[in-house]
Every structure is written in C-alpha cells, then in structure tokens.
Amino acid sequence: MKNYYSNGLDFFSFIHKGRKMATIFLVEDELSTLTLYNSLLKSNGFEILDEAMNGEEAVIKYLSFSKKPDVIIMDYKMPLKNGLEATKEILQINNKAKIIIISADWAIEHITKEIGAISFIKKPFDNKKLVKNIEKAVKGEVNSYFKCI
C-alpha cells in the first residue's frame, strides 16, 4: 500500500483527463508534506491556488482570495492557529467552503465533523484516498460529512 510519503503518482495520471481543473488551497506547516501535496495534486490535474504555513495565515489569505478555492486541504497541528480554529473561521466567512482536514490525531475526527469539515483523513494515508476525497467534493457528491481513512 502506498502512503502519502510514497510516490504513487503515475496511477492517477488518468483521473484529471476531461474534467475542469479544480483549485486547491493547501494549509500545511511541514515543508516536505507541502511539497508532496503539491506534486501529487498537480500530477492529478489540480491547480494549487495558494499555500499557507499556519491557520492564521490561512484565514488571512482566504479572505483575500477574489475567487475562492474549490477545496481546502487543512492540516490540524500548526503554529499560531491550528486547523480546527482556522476551519471554524473560514466556515464563518463562507459556510459553503469545502475543507478536508488531515491529521495523525484520531482524537479530533469527531470534532472535524461537528465544526463542518467535509472530510477527515488520517495520516499516513494512501494517495488515492486524498484524490478521491477531493474528487467527491468537487463533483458535489458530498451532502454531508464523509470519512475516508
């Protein structure tokens, strides 16, 4: 099984053919993970709208976007403001924002659902699970919270 630290990008090269390029806002404080997300998502036809290294920066950048991202990938443990706090603030700005929270901390899964995230993904994860979650969100196949572990 390929996890998010592995290179499983070729498997997904077919997914983005024939679909509108979705925009993604990445919020992650670990540079190596951010680089990996960039590579994985770009290779699957997603456009990286912007990046933030902490929750406070994420909220500030989200407010400044003239065109909001289709999906936000949000880490949980970050400096200044964690992913849960940033998610709450972004959803107060736009309650239709589609936020996928990613964390190694299982204990926050129920909280992510309560605050309005569309998905929780536990680290480490298989690359195709992240892509699948984004695809569901972009296609509007998410009526309420869904889980992909």
Provide a compact summary of the structure.
With about 150 residues, the protein is of the alpha/beta class. The protein is built from five helices and six strands.
Supply the key terms.
149 residues, alpha/beta, six-stranded parallel beta sheet, globular
Outline the structure in words.
- The chain has 149 residues and is α/β, with parallel strands linked by helices.
- The protein has a single domain, classed as Response regulator (Rossmann fold).
- The chain is built from 5 helices and 6 strands, in the order βαβαβαβαβαβ.
- The chain has helices at residues 31-43, 55-64, 83-93, 109-115, 127-139, and strands spanning 23-27, 47-52, 71-75, 99-103, 119-122, 146-147.
- It has a 6-stranded parallel sheet with strand order 2-1-3-4-5-6, with helices on both faces.
- α2 packs parallel to α3 (83-93).
- Mean pLDDT is 83; it is low at 1-18.
The helix fraction, in percent, is 25-40%
According to CATH, the fold-level topology is Rossmann fold
Beta-strand proportion: 15-25%
The CATH architecture comes to 3-Layer(aba) Sandwich
Report the uncertain regions.
1-18
Order of helices and strands: EHEHEHEHEHE
Number of strands: 6
